[in-house]
Specification:
Number of strands: 12
Number of domains: 4
Transmembrane segments: 25-49, 55-73, 85-104, 110-142, 163-183
Radius of gyration: 36 Å
Enzyme class: transferase
Helix content: 55-70%
Number of helices: 16
Distance between the termini: 45 Å
Structural class: alpha/beta
EC number: 2.7.13.3
Low-confidence stretches: 1-19, 386-395
GO molecular function: phosphorelay sensor kinase activity
Strand content: 5-15%
Largest sheet: 5 strands, mixed
Domain Histidine kinase: 214-433
């Protein structure tokens, strides 16, 4: 089964229970070919015994061998070639022996068999009509040949004709019955496939409705914080001075509310990656203990809003530096911290622990909430589960994604009861200690980019503001453009040191503009960085294939912006 969220495997169960389509088709072809080969051999021997004509025996034996060759075709070539070869052999045999044996062969009895074979072998309606028409015409010509002989059949006595009459009925019944059996079986299989697809689409549609509803709900809470604080400052601001004094606590609240919204969006994108089977692990060394302390400090402010304190404890065996996927580990830990803050009691303590046991890192987050009933401990890892007493908060996609990532990293994520009340979520993963990376300890040098000119091309004025604030903080002169063509004109005038351009803009997007910039001899050497709200790997691959020098995903972090500009401009 492809990678799917824990708890959503049932969406794919019906489809995955079906056999491999190619193997199923090959099995049908081979069965029909073996049956036809045995029938041809038996009838050839019987008719030769009755008539003594070798003109019957040799073609029948050849026909039998050719039917067996279908097995080689399906094994070493495409299955449809085997289907077409078998249909051709049946058609030639019916026409040949129909002419050779005369009216007693009752060739019309084989018409249903050929029709069934047409629908089994050929997929397009036009081809089916053409082949059925050609087969009907051939049978009609054979029947006309009986009345107006052009090719004379074998002279058979009355006893041979009578025996041939019954043999033809037996052969037609056998072939028609076999073809009808497989045609019915194939039709039933297709109907099951369609029903499974309908069921899957219904469940996916239901899941999507839940996804939209719950994601909207999750993002409204932090959005309400941002809106309330900003609205308060706008309404109380001095309109004449056009300035306002902002409290640091309120700025921190807005900042962390934005982080909450970013987490919701990251979870949604993570779900899409998992369902698409495009999730992967990218390990790198980093300072684990300092990183955890920074994360906990970040969430400490959110915890204070509920009078909750985060207590951190590391065992001496925990190494400072580890080798792991920092981004995915952050997804797990931030989801655990976020849920712990949501579900713990007001004025309680959240305990974060990290210990090492049997070469495994054991990381736990303990809250003092109402706990989780025994029968719900596994269901909380299903998408969007709301626990008893928590009618306005749900675990969303965080826990399913966190467990999926944990298992990708060779570990697991489990839930247990806190003896003092509440829950303990424990991440267990293989521990790989590491040495400090070469870039460890490098901080942003705000003078490094001083004097640099950067052209920002984006159709959204808010993105202009965001990039301007970040770049000016780095000492960079900012040139703004609203469209790609306008950016091209300004680049020729100002000759910037780097270009930041949004991928999706009205009329002409960033990728199309990249080609125009690279075609300009004066501008082609300027580092060109594409920016997108989509961070999927295929977008990065598209950017690379288009010839861009760099890629940034929104929201752009000032550290990422600094690193990208430093590598492409200063160190180039």
């Amino acid at each position: 089964m492809k990678n799917v969220l824990p708890g959503t495997e049932h969406y794919y169960t019906d489809v995955n229970k079906t056999d491999d389509p190619t193997a199923r088709v090959v099995s049908i072809i081979n069965s029909l070919a073996i049956g036809a080969s045995l029938l041809a051999f038996a009838l050839g021997c019987i008719l030769y015994y009755m008539t003594g004509y070798k003109i019957i025996l040799y073609p029948a034996m050849t026909e039998s061998a050719l039917f067996l060759s279908v097995l080689l075709v399906t094994r070493y070539s495409r299955p449809e070639y085997g289907q077409q070869l078998m249909f051709l052999l049946h058609s030639l045999a019916i026409w040949y022996f129909g002419i050779l044996l005369g009216p007693a062969s009752q060739i019309y009895l084989f018409a249903p068999f050929l029709v069934f074979c047409v629908f089994l072998v050929f997929n397009t309606a036009l081809l089916q009509v053409l082949v059925i028409t050609a087969s009907a015409a051939a049978i009609l010509l054979v029947e006309l040949n009986y009345r107006y002989p052009v090719i004379t059949g074998l002279p058979l006595d009355k006893a041979s004709n009578d025996a041939l009459h019954w043999l033809a009925i037996f052969a037609a019944t056998f072939l028609n019955g076999t073809a009808l059996y497989y045609f019915t079986k194939e039709s039933r299989f297709r109907n099951q496939q369609l029903q499974a697809l309908v069921n899957q689409l219904d469940k996916t549609n239901q899941a999507m409705r839940i996804y939209v509803r719950e994601t909207t709900h999750e993002i409204r809470s932090p959005l309400n914080v941002v809106n309330s604080i900003l609205q308060n400052y706008i309404e109380t601001a001095d309109k004449e001075k056009r300035t306002v004094q902002v409290g640091i606590a309120h700025l921190e609240a807005v900042h962390f509310a934005c982080q909450d919204m970013q987490l919701v969006i990251s979870n949604a994108l993570g779900w899409s990656r998992i369902e698409a089977g495009k999730d992967e692990i990218n390990k790198s060394p980093f300072h684990f203990t300092d990183w955890i302390l920074q994360l906990c400090d970040t969430y400490e402010y959110l915890a204070k809003r509920r009078s909750v304190h985060i207590n951190i404890a590391f065992s001496d065996q925990v190494p400072e530096y580890i080798l792991a996927d920092k981004s995915k580990l952050r997804t797990i830990i931030t989801n655990l911290l976020s849920n712990a803050i949501k579900f713990t009691k007001v004025r309680s303590i959240i305990t974060v622990k990290a210990v090492v046991k049997n070469q495994q890192l054991i990381f736990s987050v303990t809250d003092q909430g109402r706990g989780i009933p025994v029968d719900r401990k596994e269901h909380i890892f299903d998408p969007y589960v709301t626990e008893m007493g928590q009618h306005t908060e749900s675990s969303g996609l965080g826990l399913p994604i966190a467990r999926h990532i944990a298992r990708m990293m060779g570990g697991d994520l489990t839930a247990a009861d806190n003896p003092e009340g509440g829950s303990i979520f424990t991440l267990v993963m293989p521990l790989e200690a590491s040495t400090p990376p070469l870039s460890a300890g490098n901080n942003i040098d705000y003078g490094r980019l001083n004097g640099m000119k950067v052209l920002v091309v984006d159709d959204d004025p808010l993105n202009h503001l965001a990039f301007s604030l970040a770049l000016k903080r780095l000492g960079v002169e900012v040139i703004l453009a609203d469209t790609g063509p306008q950016g091209l004109t300004k680049a020729r005038i100002h000759e910037p040191d780097a270009i930041l351009m949004d991928m999706i803009m009205p009329h002409v997007g960033g990728v199309e503009m990249l080609a125009q910039f690279k075609a300009d001899k004066k501008l082609r050497q300027i580092p060109f960085i594409l920016v997108s709200g989509n961070s999927f790997n295929e977008v990065k691959e598209e950017v690379t294939a288009a010839g861009a020098d760099g890629f940034l995903s929104k929201p752009v972090n000032i550290e990422q912006l600094y690193t990208t500009l430093k590598e492409l401009v200063v160190m180039a």
